[in-house]
Design a protein that fits this description.
Blueprint (H helix, E strand, L loop, with lengths): L1 H31 L5 H13 L2 H4 L13 E4 L2 E4 L16 H10 L14 H4 L4 H13 L11 E2 L6 H11 L13 H13 L23 E3 L4 E3 L15 H10 L9 H9 L6 H14 L6 H4 L7 H17 L1 H4 L25 H9 L24 H11 L12 H6 L6
């Protein structure tokens, strides 16, 4: 009996030891996850969508946020890092402070300066609270063990001292400061556009060092992509100063309106990011973008009608014949298009942008507006590079840019060849 009692006590002690160990493990786990509560993680997921984090940190066919996407620039090839919570290859050993250091200060966990291909120039405007929420969301993801290849930065740009000088000249850190003279809605829109949305990463011109020329949304070629991001201020390009708020919201959330169609990198942004934002945030962004856009101006007074010698007339006449054969069935005899199906070309600002790059690439490669909840089955355009040669593409693009009252520069075959750029 005594032996049985001792065996029971021993079993009970073993049971209690195991139970306490399990309880301690659970408590420790709960403490470790205390910062990653579901509501906080959900808010972080929303903010990560607003910043389109997955868009850069996911390679074609790869696992979300595991990195590996290669970004071509004039300074070399950059590879996006793994930001899942994997201990060895991701951010599993990062703290919130480490993440804030990257977002706000543009520095890696070990203190190295990050290259501005990571848009900390804009992310520095994000609040610490929102940065922490994004970090909580990323830490809640399943870890992915994926070691990505290193950057291939061309010398001398791989020098940290030169990067230090670049930051000294061109980087101004600081959280967004609300404008007290504006409404709360306007400030929310400005915060999203200037910060998480990092719109100036594309919609600004760059100097030879890759820095924004003026820090405003005046438009420019997107480095390494051979696409042109139009000005969001000029009514000659993509300025929306005279647009109804509802139309701006429609374009940002669906990618298409009677006024315009998004294409190229912007179509991807609408599909992967903007369409997922709340109605309130979409309206806030629209309010801000409308406020910075200049009102409509007389284009004919702004742009001088180019001289039309006989050689130019013949050149455009050839483009008209190509248009009638390949384009007219969809876009119409007068370039009127079909509402919400095929975009109009007459009076279409995206056709007459200062740079013809986007129109050329659309003819070369075709494309679709983004597939979104508000435009689930978009009509697309087939590629024509295998049907008509570069000279003919130049002729038809020149015709489209100067027909039906449009006023744009002429395009030649060398412009078409140059527009191909890097192929991914």
């Amino acid at each position: 009996m005594k032996r049985l009692f001792l065996r029971f006590i021993g079993s009970r002690q073993t049971f209690l030891f195991i139970a306490c160990s399990l309880l301690l493990t659970l408590l420790t786990t709960n403490l470790a996850l205390a910062d990653f509560t579901e509501p906080q993680s959900q808010q972080g997921e929303y903010l990560a969508l607003a910043g389109n984090c997955k868009g850069c940190h996911t390679t074609l066919g790869g696992k979300p946020y595991a990195g590996g996407r290669k970004l071509q620039t004039p300074f070399g090839e950059f590879v996006t890092p793994n930001i899942t919570p994997d201990i060895e290859t991701g951010i599993g050993q990062w703290s919130k402070e480490d993440f804030w250091q990257a977002m706000h200060h543009g520095k890696a966990k070990d203190g190295r300066y990050l290259y501005p291909v990571f848009p900390y120039i804009e992310y520095t405007k994000v609040t610490r609270q929102d940065s922490d929420k994004i970090f909580d969301y990323l830490r809640s993801l399943p870890p992915v063990a994926q070691a990505n290849p290193p950057h291939k930065i061309d010398p001398p740009y791989d020098n940290q001292f030169l990067l230090f000088l670049w930051r000294t000249w061109y980087f101004e850190e600081g959280v967004y400061k609300p404008d007290s003279s504006k409404s709360e809605e306007w400030n929310r829109g400005a915060y999203l556009v200037q910060g998480l949305g990092h719109c100036t990463a594309c919609h600004t011109s760059r100097n030879v060092w890759g820095a924004s020329q003026d820090g405003e949304l005046q438009g420019g070629e997107i480095m390494g992509t051979f696409w042109y991001a139009p000005s969001l201020i000029s009514p000659l390009e993509a300025g929306m100063g005279d647009w109804p708020i509802e139309t701006v919201v429609e374009l940002l959330s669906t990618g298409i309106t009677n006024h315009a169609v998004t294409s190229g990198p912007m179509a991807t942004i609408v599909r992967e990011s903007l369409q997922h934002l709340s109605a309130a945030d979409m309206r806030a962004m629209a309010v801000y973008l409308q406020s910075i856009g200049k009102k409509e101006i007389d284009i004919k007074k702004t742009r001088k009608i180019p001289p039309m010698p006989e050689a130019v007339r013949q050149y455009l006449a050839k483009g008209e014949l190509i248009y009638e054969k390949h384009c007219q069935d969809c876009h119409g005899e007068s370039g009127q298009g079909v509402s919400n199906i095929y975009p109009p070309l007459a009076g279409n600002r995206s056709v007459t942008l200062t740079s013809p790059l986007n129109t050329i690439r659309s003819v070369l490669y075709g494309g679709y507006p983004p597939s979104t909840a508000g435009n689930k089955r978009p009509y697309g355009m087939p590629p024509y590079q295998h049907i008509i040669h570069d000279t003919e593409i130049a002729q038809v693009v020149s015709y489209i840019r100067n027909a039906w009252g449009n006023l744009g520069s002429l395009v030649n075959q060398f412009d078409v060849d140059d527009s191909r750029g890097y192929e991914y």
